[in-house]
Write a structure and sequence with these properties.
Elements (H helix, E strand, L loop, with lengths): L5 H32 L20 H7 L2 H32 L7 H13 L4 H10 L7 H4 L6 H13 L2 H9 L4 H12 L1 H17 L2 H6 L8 H10 L18 H23 L3 H8 L4
Helix pairs in contact: 1-13, 2-13, 3-7, 3-10, 4-7, 8-9, 10-13, 10-14, 12-13
């Protein structure tokens, strides 16, 4: 067993000190938001307060009982689940064939994928396409335009290409076709990169708001980010659609802080469960052919 030297203790001390400092820098803004959200008087969110002068939970009660916020939360979760599922399926079905060198016109297809990373049709053509297809005010206008990301395709293609060829050859000798090899061998062995891309997609869909501004006009279809955007711009608690009659006793600052924390908590919890795949998926997916 290796005996720790003085230099080892110094390195460990510095490492833990740096990690602790980083944790504090992340937790302080979150704690400050919480303090502002439970303060009964107007408090500037830019001024740090370690402890509120008094606790007032009316802002949290209003958010938790707001039908508008919960409907927006449902719309957000539905978008995240549907958009992520479609994107993962499309990415896998695109990347796996491109990882095979025997694919006809493979280089042409790769050039087409890389071309879309550098050039796009632009905002106005994309908007006209979505509207003319009749997708406005539907969930499809939010998930289909970003269903396939060329960057994710390249990452997953490199991962598939790095898998041991002997496993696929053995399965082929045993009578397995391409679909069986994909679903029984390639996908189970590619869970780290799939989990990584899933995390990216979840964060992308959860934080998206600009496409909702473009394509969604019905308030019943708003997502949480749009609600947060409205609350940040509003100065009157009475216009915030809260599920309580005590809005006159609330401050806009407390409602904004509470809503911000309410929006942040779910995505932080998702990242906590998936972060162990993050570095492994990136490093393995970056292997060149």
């Amino acid at each position: 067993m290796h005996k720790k030297t003085t230099s080892d203790w110094v390195v460990n001390l510095m490492s833990y000190s740096l990690i602790s400092l980083l944790c504090v820098t992340v937790l302080i803004p979150l704690w400050n938001l919480f303090v502002v959200s439970v303060s009964p008087v107007a408090t500037d969110a830019m001024t740090f307060r370690f402890w509120p002068k008094a606790f007032d939970w009316k802002a949290w009660q209003g958010i938790i009982t707001s039908e508008f916020i919960w409907r927006s939360f449902y719309n957000t979760i539905f978008r995240v689940v549907l958009g992520t599922a479609i994107a993962i399926i499309m990415t896998v079905l695109t990347a796996y064939p491109l990882s095979k060198k025997m694919l006809p016109f493979r280089k042409l297809f790769l050039i087409m994928v890389l071309f879309t990373m550098l050039f796009s049709g632009g905002l106005i053509p994309s908007y006209l396409l979505v509207v003319n297809m009749g997708l406005r005010n539907t969930i499809w206008s939010l998930v289909l335009p970003i269903a396939v990301s060329p960057f994710n395709v390249i990452i997953m293609k490199n991962f598939f290409a790095a898998l041991p060829k002997s496993l696929e050859e053995s399965a082929t000798i045993d009578g397995a076709n391409d679909l069986i090899v994909l679903f029984k061998i390639a996908i189970p062995m590619s869970m780290p990169v799939i989990a990584t891309i899933t995390l990216w997609l979840v964060v992308t869909h959860y934080n998206a708001w600009f496409d909702v501004v473009l394509y969604i006009t019905e308030r019943s279809r708003y997502v949480l980010q749009i609600v947060l955007r409205e609350y940040q711009a509003s100065k009157d608690p009475a216009t915030m659609n809260l599920g309580t009659t005590e809005v006159v006793t609330m401050t806009p600052e407390s409602i904004r802080a509470a809503t911000t924390l309410f929006v942040m908590v779910p995505i932080i919890m998702v990242y906590t469960f998936l972060q162990k795949y993050f570095i492994k998926g990136i490093s393995l997916g970056a292997i060149k052919e």
